[in-house]
Design a protein that fits this description.
The chain is α/β, with parallel strands linked by helices and 615 residues long. The chain contains 21 helices and 24 strands. Bound molecules: fructose -6-phosphate.
């Protein structure tokens, strides 16, 4: 969703901000803007609905000098995605300019109060209320900007990451955060600010993550001041080294990030597995689980919370943990968790799964679970994001930045970590012996090579995709471990091609969806040689008996299904618990090629955002 970038230094802010905004595009947005402050203290704001390219077009020929600036990509929440609602929002008379990620929940009350004090509002945004509030406090108290920001934030309920600049103060920027991330990049005589590290990469690898309820005053040529909103200086700046490279943020010769990320899976799974399986493949070591073994051993129940694709991974995690460890597992949509009267106790372990580590609903579920006394474990991709900072412990999936909005390599990384977690926990609980761990661990070690083999299907899937480009509906069916794979396949197709697709447990089909089947409604059926193979085979027969067309994902040499299905995608055989990792890859490819055939923007599908930072 929204993205922030800021710069203060000796370089030209405009170019740095525009590059930063382009790097933030992957998050999803519908308008963009910048505020630039020239050395003489004049402040200019350029903003436009549409893309960063539209903003660039708007700024063409205008004065874009200045070595201080803030920029923003906005994903509309309060008000239309138009020029007026775009950020930066400015205060009365254009004295202050502010960019904001998050939502100010009590903005109506504040707006009312400010209106009574003579303020008027040009936009429909909560952000304009915040900048006017800062202006009001500064004007009333005759105080410097940092003090006014601190005061204003004390009045505010909600979530925010903000950056503010002030006319006639070309050497200063103030930033703050609560429940929305903000990272500060420390370069040689220059400082960068961003909502995630992507705009900073390539400028500096030294970063400071702002904590919740902290603000920083960045002054040209002066040491950085980080303090709590209560005014206490942070004892140590805790400068960290970024492990991201520019190459990871580029397409590397692929036409889209999504295709690059699908093809990266052999190497991302290598990174994900690194150091986690012993050389003899008889033991799995996830340090977060080992270090908290008592909490896991005490758990009467594990509750998994997540959204979207991560929730699908969670469903697979449920089956893995129940089967391998004998612990009951529940999987909840994080977005529903807090509204479902959750019964969580100190004897529960809550596992939160999130690629971005910033999903607002998942963060809210974590907070509630913590308040109820549970031990909360995170499975995340983005290092230093909010979820790892708000959980007691956890595991990173280490698949590198995922830029395509549709999750691909993060899903296979999440499932891989869930397999490791289940194996590690099973060892600790004694429910699996080393000889039982070994075949799964060996197959995991071979997984990068297995996925390489699956990716050879790409040309065949591309060809197959042409048959279905104009289908209006799809059914995805699977059972057991592959019911979630079916859900994930359907989600991939709908989000990037805009074709309606439903995932269903294959046996549930006869309880309703079978009515939909005809020759216009293709069914994608995941049917590896697992314990439910014969049952899925009869589901294939049921679809065929009703004139439906079947695309089956099968293991090589499955003549029974081959003789029935219209099209088969053959994947290598792996232990049953690993089939979702392997079977999801052809489904990613199928969704990808259908979307490309339809001319869709697969990396940035309409209405979607990469990190969903609002409820
Ligand atoms: C689908 C997709 C979304 C996310 C969901 C949760 O391709 O990407 O469904 O999985 O928004 O996001 P994270 O995992 O970042 O919490």
């Amino acid at each position: 969703m929204c993205g922030i970038v800021g710069y203060i230094g000796s370089g030209r802010a405009y170019g740095i901000l525009m590059d930063g905004l382009r790097r933030l595009e992957y998050r999803g947005y519908d308008s963009a803007g910048v505020a630039l402050e020239r050395d003489d203290g004049t402040l200019s704001v350029y903003k436009s609905s549409g893309k960063v390219a539209d903003l660039e077009h708007l700024a063409e020929g205008k004065d874009t000098t200045g070595s201080l600036g803030i920029g923003h990509t906005r994903w509309a929440t309060h008000g239309q995605p138009n020029d007026v609602n775009a950020h930066p929002q400015v205060s009365r008379g254009g004295r202050l300019a502010l960019v904001h990620n998050g939502t100010i929940e009590n903005y109506r009350v504040l707006k009312e109060t400010l209106s009574q004090c003579g303020y008027s509002f040009a936009s429909e945004t909560d952000t304009e209320v915040l900048v006017q509030l800062i202006d009001y406090i500064q004007e009333t108290n005759h105080c410097p900007l940092p003090e006014a920001v601190r005061e204003a934030l004390r009045e505010v309920d909600g979530a925010y990451a903000i950056a503010v600049v002030e006319r006639d103060q070309p050497d200063q920027m103030v930033v703050a955060r609560k429940s929305s991330p903000l990272v500060i990049g420390v370069g040689e005589g220059e400082t960068f600010v961003a909502s995630d590290a992507t705009p900073i990469v390539g400028h500096t690898d030294q970063v400071i993550y702002l904590h919740d309820n902290e603000m920083a005053v960045i002054r040209r040529g002066k040491p950085l001041e980080v303090q709590s909103l209560a005014g206490e200086a942070r004892p140590s700046l805790d400068v960290q080294t970024l492990r991201l490279s520019v190459a990871q943020l580029e397409k590397g010769g692929y036409p889209t990030f999504m295709l690059k990320e699908i093809f990266e899976q052999p190497s991302t799974l290598t990174d994900c597995l690194r150091g986690r399986i012993t050389a003899d493949c008889r033991r799995v070591v996830l340090s977060g689980v080992v270090e908290n073994r008592e909490k896991f051993l005490r758990a009467h129940r594990i509750v998994i919370v997540a959204c979207g694709t991560s929730w699908h991974a969670g469903l697979i995690g449920k089956r893995l943990i129940q089967e391998m460890c004998g612990i009951p597992v529940e999987v909840e949509y994080a977005s529903e968790f807090r509204y479902g009267c959750p019964r969580i106790s100190e004897d529960d372990v809550v596992v939160a799964i999130s690629q971005s580590g910033e999903t607002a609903d998942t963060l809210a579920a974590i907070q509630l679970a913590r308040e109820m006394g549970a031990f909360v474990y995170g499975i995340c991709n983005v290092v230093g994001s909010s979820i790892p900072r708000n959980t007691h412990s956890g595991t990173y999936i280490h698949v590198g930045p995922e830029i395509g909005v549709a999750s691909t390599k993060a899903f296979t990384g999440q499932v891989t970590v869930l397999v490791l977690l289940a194996l590690c926990l099973a060892q600790i609980k004694g429910t699996l012996r080393p000889y039982e761990v070994e075949p799964v661990a060996k197959a995991l070690q071979r997984m990068p090579a297995t996925i390489k083999e699956v990716l050879r299907l790409a040309p065949a899937v591309e060809q197959l995709s042409r048959t279905f480009t104009y289908a209006h509906n799809f059914l995805y069916l699977g059972r057991g471990y592959n019911y979630p794979t079916a859900l994930e396949g359907a989600l991939k197709l709908k989000e990037i091609s805009y074709i309606h697709a439903e995932g269903y447990p294959a046996a549930e089909m006869k309880h309703g969806p079978i009515a939909l089947i005809d020759d216009e409604m293709p069914s994608v059926i995941i049917a590896p040689n697992d314990s439910l193979h014969d049952k899925v085979l009869s589901n294939v027969q049921q679809v065929k008996a009703r004139g439906g067309r079947v695309v089956a994902v099968i293991n090589s040499g499955d003549e029974a299904i081959k003789s029935l299905a219209d099209y088969c995608l053959e994947i290598p055989e792996v232990p049953e618990c690993l089939t979702p990792i392997v079977a999801s890859v052809p489904l990613q490819l199928l969704a990808y090629y259908i979307a490309v055939n339809k001319g869709r923007n697969v990396d940035k599908p309409r209405n979607l955002a990469k990190s969903v930072t609002v409820e």
